[in-house]
Amino acid sequence: MTRGAETKTQTARRFVGRVTLVSILFVAAAGTLVARAVHLQVFNKDFLLEEATSRHVRTATITAHRGTITDRNGEPLAISTPVDSVWANPKELALAEDKMPALARALDIDEQSLLRQITFSMNKDFVYLRRHLSPDQAADVMALQLPGVNIQREYRRFYPAGEVTGHLVGFTNIDDKGLEGLELEYDYWLAGESGAKRVLKDRLGRAVENVESIRPPRHGKELRTSIDLRIQYVAYRALKRAISENNARSGSIVVLDTETGEVLAMANQPSYNPNDRSQFVAERYRNRAITDIFEPGSSIKPLVVTAALESGEYRSSSIIDTAPGSITIGAKTIEDKRNLGRISLATILARSSNVGATKVAMSLKPRELWNTMQNFGLGTVTSSGFPGESAGMLTHHDHWKPISQATLAYGYGLSVTPLQLAQAYAIIGNNGVGHPVTLIKQDEPGSGQQLVSAESAIAVRRMLEEVVRPGGTGTGAAVDGYRIAGKTGTSWKFAAGGYSKDKYISVFAGMAPASDPRLATVVVIDEPSGEKYYGGDVAAPVFADIMSESLRLLAVPPDALPARDPNSTMQAMGR
Question: Which positions are annotated as active-site residues?
Answer without folding.
Answer: 298
